[in-house]
Design brief:
single chain; alpha/beta; TIM Barrel; six-stranded parallel beta sheet; globular
Length: 250
């Protein structure tokens, strides 16, 4: 059982001053090849047999053994990037570290802020260890939807989503995260709200939608609709990247 009864203290590797490397000039936008990891939660659960309650990998930050698992996972990909001299995007383990999922797992908002901070700090450790041998290492703060991610959820308006996700984004803003990545978005209003919140925090953003086997979002719109509507509703010119998709197979 995960012990989350007490607010966890800041760990020694948390830095006093956030110094993102690329927040204002993301190197992957220059057309170079970048490697990402291959699905943290899926790998740990289905290939390594690790119990992640609610698919929440951030709980591994609670223990030294859990942090070791995370570091070993990321280092495998960092080694590939080094061997092939590609860039590398380090995606944080905080997909489930939002208010709704945190509450389901028994965590307070204060604890979630700390886990989001610690997650980015762990990635900064790895970045620094490989900085002399990999061309560019970008740190990305990963966030997920307030709901399932694989079924349509229109319970939040864009305005509500902006307010709901602002705390996690603001937490990333005060770390060494270079960008934010919102993954498995299942509807357009939530993606719009997240993009507005990121714009307010002056950070780059990548939106990745879930799509069904017919190529449409769970809420029915096309991927093109998802891209165009977010662009039209936000006008986020601070290096907005609305792209990508995760295929939901049945």
């Amino acid at each position: 059982m995960w012990d989350n009864s007490i607010l966890i203290p800041a760990l020694p590797f948390i830095r006093e001053t956030a110094m993102p490397y690329y927040r204002n000039r993301l190197p992957q936008l220059n057309g170079d090849l970048f490697l990402t990891d291959g699905g943290l939660e899926t790998t740990l659960i289905f290939e390594e047999g690790i119990n992640l309650p609610g698919f929440a990998a951030f709980v591994l930050l609670e223990s030294e053994s859990g942090r070791k698992i995370l570091k070993e996972y990321y280092r495998r990909y960092a080694d590939i990037a080094r061997e092939n001299q590609t860039g590398f995007i380090l995606e944080s383990m905080t997909w489930r570290a939002n208010l709704d999922w945190g509450k389901k797992l028994g965590y307070t908002p204060e604890q979630l802020i700390e886990y989001n901070r610690q997650g980015i700090a762990l990635l900064a450790e790895i970045r620094d260890a490989y900085s002399d041998s990999i061309p560019h290492i970008v740190i990305s703060g990963c966030m997920g939807p307030h709901g399932d991610g694989y079924s349509a959820d229109l319970s939040l308006t864009a305005k509500e989503a902006e307010s709901y996700h602002r705390t996690q984004i603001a937490t990333f803003r005060n770390t060494e995260a270079d960008m934010v990545a919102a993954s498995t978005m299942n509807c357009i209003p939530e993606a719009i709200g997240i993009t507005r919140a990121v714009k307010a925090e002056k950070m780059p953003i990548v939106i990745s939608y879930t799509v069904e086997t017919d190529g449409r979002l769970p809420s029915g719109e096309s991927l093109q609709d998802g891209i165009l509507q977010v662009d039209a509703a936000t006008d986020h010119r601070h290096v907005t990247e609305v792209c990508g998709q995760l295929c939901n197979t049945h």
